[in-house]
Amino acid sequence: MSQNRKIWDKALLDYQAKKFSEVKLLLQPFLSKYDQDLSLRELYAKSWYWSLQNRGKEDKLLAFYLDLHKRIQHEIDVQDGIRKKDEVVIVLGFNDVEWKIATIYLDRAEWQTAESYLELSLFGGTMTTDGSQGPHPSVIENYAYLTETAYYLNDKDKNRFYFCKTLQLDPKNTYAFQFLLR
Predict the structure, then answer these.
(1) Count: domains in the chain
(2) How far is CA 73 from CA 38, 45, 80, 125, 173, in A?
(3) In this predicted model, what pLDDT tens digit does every residue of 131-179 receive, in sequence order?
(4) Which domain holds residue 64?
(5) Mutual angle of helices 38-51 and 96-107, in 10-degree steps
(6) Angstrom distances, CA of residue 102 to CA of 31, 97, 122
(7) Is residue 54 exposed (0-12), middle (13-18) or buried (19+ Cβ within 10 Å)?
(8) Banded model confidence at residue 128, pLDDT cuts 50, 70, 90
(9) CATH number of residue 128's parent domain
(10) How far lies 52's CA from each of 27, 150, 154, 164, 168, in Å?
(11) What is the pTM of this model?
């Protein structure tokens, strides 16, 4: 994509300006030409994600994100060659991918799968927090969403743990209360 630096720079600026539909349209023609460019695919995917009102009904978006996740995992295998069967590796540069997949599954009410991706995302999110400024808002949000998944899975122990963790990190959080199992 370096040959098209102006387009890439415009896409980044438009993304920062929250012009998500424009970014998606701008990058779409480059997806097949730069098929292996994970950064391009990730910017396209997150622009598509934010441009939708109801992400849970968009099967193509979920498929695109799952493919991106698979490509990232494959890239890890190619680069290090030491990953064992069924071992999960999180790439810190792309840990947002797991969160996006998780929230799509939340929107689809697929609680178990959402929980799995939220846990992956949470691990990646905590690894990027230096701790000096308190927890990153995405970490708090993850715990609140995990409270929700445990609620729908009727897992009282996890529900209480995630609820308490949410309030420990953000005592003013009100979202998690609606999902507390009694």
Answers:
(1) 1
(2) 11, 16, 11, 17, 34
(3) 556 777 888 999 999 999 999 999 999 999 999 999 999 999 999 999 9
(4) 52-179
(5) 30
(6) 23, 9, 11
(7) exposed
(8) low
(9) 1.25.40.10
(10) 17, 26, 30, 32, 32
(11) 0.83
